[in-house]
Amino acid sequence: AGPLSIDDVSKTYAGARPNGAVRALSRVSLDIGEGEFLSIIGPSGCGKTTLLNMIAGFVTPSTGVVRRGAVAIAGPGPDRTMMFQDYALFPWLTVADNIAFGLRAKGLSRRERETAVARFVDLARLKGFEDRLPHELSGGMRQRVSVARALAPDPDIVLMDEPFAALDSLTRDALQEELLAIWERSGKTFVLVTHNIEEALFLSDRVVVMAPRPGRIQTIVEIPLPRP
Ligand code: ADP
Ligand code: ADP
């Protein structure tokens, strides 16, 4: 448990181009408090996804360290889940099985899993669609499955990589309101990566702007927002 601290982190992807490695992040430091809703914005290619993937534990820093409390993050863990722009649902699993996926790792009984799935089916307004496959759903519904799958294991930290980018504006507005309501009553830490400043301003209590070229020392400008 504890806040996240990103401490002087750099990332170079080796051999990504014929003519050499790509420096994706340079010496980024950032603290993220427990229960905070933080947005990270910046132009395409500045390293936002790399940073988010490091918090998730999918990407290892080349130098520097990401910590949760006093403990260095060394890989994915049940305290952190992620949502993606393309939903990344398991196409061969039903809505219910997608939502149940992260629950197996938590060692819950079948009964407990069923209860949790039913709760998150309700929360994501997916009642009646439990046995559908992802390709049978609209984009908005798929992203709601992805929200339910991310929240069902009760993570402390929810990471979101452009989760609204593929949605039409009405669907996006509705999902944003829902996520905000969930965040407000859950006490979880939400970290959103987006290139949409309006989205960031609407949703978060703090906006971090990463600027602008990977390979340089990254400038991070923080915009604290008063909560109404
Ligand atoms: P953003 O999310 O801000 O668009 P990314 O973190 O996706 O930025 O990418 C930062 C830089 O690292 C870009 O130049 C990108 O091409 C490069 N990059 C990202 N992921 C990889 C990878 N797996 N292998 C090689 N290069 C990568
Ligand atoms: P969202 O705004 O979440 O994307 P839509 O506007 O696509 O939802 O759909 C609204 C409602 O229409 C859904 O909640 C669902 O009841 C129904 N619906 C949408 N797509 C499908 C589908 N492929 N099969 C059955 N019902 C659907």
From TrEMBL:
<dbReference type="GO" id="GO:0016887">
    <property type="term" value="F:ATP hydrolysis activity"/>
</dbReference>
<keyword id="KW-0813">Transport</keyword>
<protein>
    <submittedName>
        <fullName>ABC transporter ATP-binding protein</fullName>
    </submittedName>
</protein>
<dbReference type="GO" id="GO:0005524">
    <property type="term" value="F:ATP binding"/>
</dbReference>
<dbReference type="InterPro" id="IPR050166">
    <property type="entry name" value="ABC_transporter_ATP-bind"/>
</dbReference>
<keyword id="KW-0547">Nucleotide-binding</keyword>
<keyword id="KW-0067">ATP-binding</keyword>
<feature type="domain" description="ABC transporter">
    <location>
        <begin position="4"/>
        <end position="228"/>
    </location>
</feature>
<dbReference type="InterPro" id="IPR017871">
    <property type="entry name" value="ABC_transporter-like_CS"/>
</dbReference>
<dbReference type="InterPro" id="IPR003439">
    <property type="entry name" value="ABC_transporter-like_ATP-bd"/>
</dbReference>
<comment type="similarity">
    <text>Belongs to the ABC transporter superfamily.</text>
</comment>
<dbReference type="InterPro" id="IPR027417">
    <property type="entry name" value="P-loop_NTPase"/>
</dbReference>
<dbReference type="Pfam" id="PF00005">
    <property type="entry name" value="ABC_tran"/>
</dbReference>
<dbReference type="InterPro" id="IPR003593">
    <property type="entry name" value="AAA+_ATPase"/>
</dbReference>
